[in-house]
Amino acid sequence: EAVGWWMVIGLGAPPEAALNAARLEQLSLLRGRAVTLGAPSTPCDAEDSDGTYAHWFNEIDVTYVMVRPDYYLAASSSPEALRRQCDEVMLQLHMQAPNHQTSRCA
User: Fold this and answer.
1) What span, in angstroms and rounded, lies between the C-alpha atoms of 15 and 83?
2) What is the block-wise mean pLDDT of the chain (106 residues), using blocks of 10 residues?
3) Rounded to whole angstroms, what are the CA distances from 45 to 14, 15, 96?
4) Which backbone phi and psi does 20 adopt, to 5 degrees?
5) CB-based contact 74:49 (threshold 8 Å)
6) DSSP assignment letter at 17
7) How large is the angle between the packed helices 79-92 and 21-29, nearest 10 degrees?
8) Distance (Å, rounded) from C-alpha 72 to C-alpha 41?
């Protein structure tokens, strides 16, 4: 059901741990999803049953990716960089922060 939506995917790390409530609300306004990907038998939203995603995440040395609905990789990063990249993507989309005082997430 996550296919065709904005997604922030964390490998073994919930995106909610890296993004504050304002950023998660903006993702929600895009009908986006925060998804934790993990190995079989680990707490996660989706299983990486054959390790393909784990291999890819490790190869590009990231914890999180942000994927557009057309499957274009909008961001890939560590937790700190994800916050900055999320802000940049939201600015490009002309998204306003939930408090409507600025276009940047607080």
Assistant:
1) 10
2) 77 94 90 94 95 95 92 87 88 67 42
3) 9, 11, 28
4) -75, 175
5) no
6) G
7) 40
8) 29
The reported pLDDT for the residue numbered 3 is 54
Exposure on the CB side of residue 88, measured as CA atoms within 13 A: 9
Residues 10 and 78 sit within 8 Å (Cβ to Cβ): no
pLDDT of residue 7: 93
Q: Residues 13-43, buried b or exposed e (16+ Cβ, 10 A)?
A: bbbeebbeebbbebbeebebbbbbbbeeeee
Contact 64, 77 (CB under 8 A): yes
Q: Tell the residue number behind the tokens 């996660």, with chain if given.
A: 44
